Amino acid sequence: MGVITNLTRMWLTRSVKPFLFTDEPAPQTSFKGCRNLGLYLHIPFCSSICGFCPYCKVLYQEELCSRYIDALIREIHRTGNSLGKKKTVTSLYIGGGTPALAADRMKDILDAVRQHFIITEGVGVELHPDNVTVPVLRTLKEAGVTKLSIGIQSFQKKYQTVLGRKTVDAAAMSEALAAVPFETVSMDFIFALPGQTLRDLAADVDAAFTHGANHIAIYPFIDFTFTPGKIRRMPEREKRRLLDGITAYCLKRGCIRTSVWTFAREKGAGYSSMTRETYLGFGCSAATLLRGQFKINTFSVEEYCRRMERGESATALTCRFSRRQRMVYYLFWAAYSTRVDAGEFERFFGIPLKKMYGMELKLAEWLGFIRKDKDSYIMTPKGAYYYHYYENFYTLSYIDKMWGVLRNEAFPKRLTL
Ligand SMILES: C[S@@+](CC[C@H](N)C(=O)[O-])C[C@H]1O[C@@H](n2cnc3c(N)ncnc32)[C@H](O)[C@@H]1O
Ligand code: SF4
């Protein structure tokens, strides 16, 4: 696994230099050239913990949650005060954990954000199906939330049992969504669960749109090494058939593909915190990606609160990219949106994409992974499959390793990936 990602990294960065993360204080945050800056806030509380979930999360405790939100607001002001003047950002995504558990503090959080940032494309929040009630939705809407992402996983009891979750009350959920409408209602599903068929998945897609979604995310099940859950992995060939089948089904239904895993039923519906050129993260485990650096906060909720109360940085690890490393990172996430815009690349890096990766683009076109459309390269369904296949390696070689370390150590000294 590591061999594949290492060779790809060496090829595309033209160097044997790995990604090196250290605990050295991050250099001064510079927003030079960050035109499409996004914001991400992490709220790590859940009512119960799922055995398959890799995210930074802890069981909800009222007192700890309240202390954490105070700390989060401190971090927002700490960064905001260093900006000088209000900064325009595209979007704000609040993920977790289950951030809707802190719905009654959402207004405080968004008020703090709005003191320093102007948000142009809306505010998204993640919910567990249990949180989809009229009072919670009203509270979120009144605070300024415009997009919801609900973790359904499956509407079918047999797969909820596999995942160790309870059945979703679809009727109650759709009633609440009809009573309090939002611009985007996205529903998350997990595919490639043992025994899952295309018919099962298509039924889930239909149910999502019937019960109030206008956007869906269909994530492949990823078996992280550090999660306690034991779910049998689906063989690759079966997974590909399922991915191709459900992609064709969504497109036939008139959906627009908004990224490798996401589909919108209508134009304008969108939910993606990942496909930003640059972003600022707040809260434990939140990452920040700027032009020349990537940094990630501690995964320890306690340490995070303590650092914020003392007025100290919560950054655990920082990586200073070489130019080629940054290009690879940029292209990986641009490809996730199924489109790489050559003009945008040149604006960001000051050099034509063709000049840096002309040979690779030709090869990808020849292999049928991409096709050219004016100034953009569009990923084909074949390309999306291989991206998905590669992403599994990337997730297990990079994310699994980094999160695995950070779960055990609040402030590790260094990490090489
Ligand atoms: C933070 S949770 C969503 C909100 C809420 N906590 C919930 O579970 O309903 C984010 C999403 O990540 C996806 N996810 C979690 N663990 C996964 C795994 N091992 N493989 C694939 N997707 C996963 C699930 O679809 C989940 O809805
Ligand atoms: S899937 Fe959602 S509810 Fe389950 S542990 Fe992860 S964040 Fe919490």
Question: What share of residues is helical?
Answer: 40-55%
| Tertiary shape | globular
Approximate strand percentage = 15-25%
Q: What is the gyration radius calculated from CA atoms?
A: 21 Å
User: How many β strands by DSSP?
Assistant: 21
Question: What is the total domain count?
Answer: 2
Mean pLDDT: 90
Distance between the termini: 12 Å
Largest sheet: 9 strands, mixed
Helix/strand structural class: alpha/beta
CATH topology label of the largest domain: TIM Barrel
Number of helices: 13
CATH H level, superfamily name of the largest domain: Aldolase class I
With strands numbered from the N-terminus, the spatial order across the biggest sheet is 12-13-11-10-9-8-6-2-14
CATH top-level class of the largest domain: Alpha Beta
CATH architecture of the largest domain: Alpha-Beta Barrel
Bound molecules: S-adenosylmethionine, iron/sulfur cluster
Given as residue ranges, the uncertain stretches (5+ residues, pLDDT < 50) are none
Task: Summarize, please.
The protein has 417 residues and is an alpha/beta fold. It has 13 helices and 21 strands. The protein is globular, with a radius of gyration of 21 Å.
